[in-house]
Design goal:
single chain; 224 residues; Zincin-like; 3-stranded mixed beta sheet; 6% strand; mainly alpha; 3 strands; 61% helix
Length: 224
Amino acid sequence: MSSQDSSSSSSPTPSSSDNSIFKRWSRTFGVITGVGMTEEERRSELEAHHGRTCETWKREMMNYSPSVVFMLKHLKMSGCPVAPEHIVCAPCDFSRSGGFSPQAGAIVMCQGKFFNKRHMEDTLVHELVHMYDHCKFKVDWNDLRHHACSEIRANSLSGDCRYMRELRRGFPSFSKQHQACVRRRAVLSVRANPACPDEATAERAVNEVWESCFNDTRPFDEIY
């Protein structure tokens, strides 16, 4: 047998690239099905996957999302530039998809809590509106009227109250759907404020500032 024949009849050796692809595929398969992994390993790998996805989407949005880039521009113009480290991807409880910490001057994106990339984009814009209000208007978050105003603006301007988003939440409506969504979500957020004693107080705070704050679309020219 010639050396050429011997070479052609031998089994091909998998390349390091093939092995790497296979390992990634096996890991992904394990995360989805649980096969070959302990429950703890699966949870850990799934959390790491959510973290990588959140960080990737965050970078893309800060560079290419028209609404996010617009908000970042106006925050910088207001004297509060936002760097990537001011937007943190982290695990959260089941009740939220994002949050703004006035004390830390940072936004938390709740990795693994987004239906899709658009949902994360809307959440980020929502929190950037809070950050903008805090920077430009010196919001006192213990003042329920201040809090209510920022919640009205953030829910209205971010895309949180689009019709399909409300339908997913189980709130179909054909009459003043946007306003109803903004009002409902603002009341829920104000009610969660430790300074708020009950739902009636939250509703009153939202009602007192509704007209002026709903009509205030800064820094946008109109509702996004």
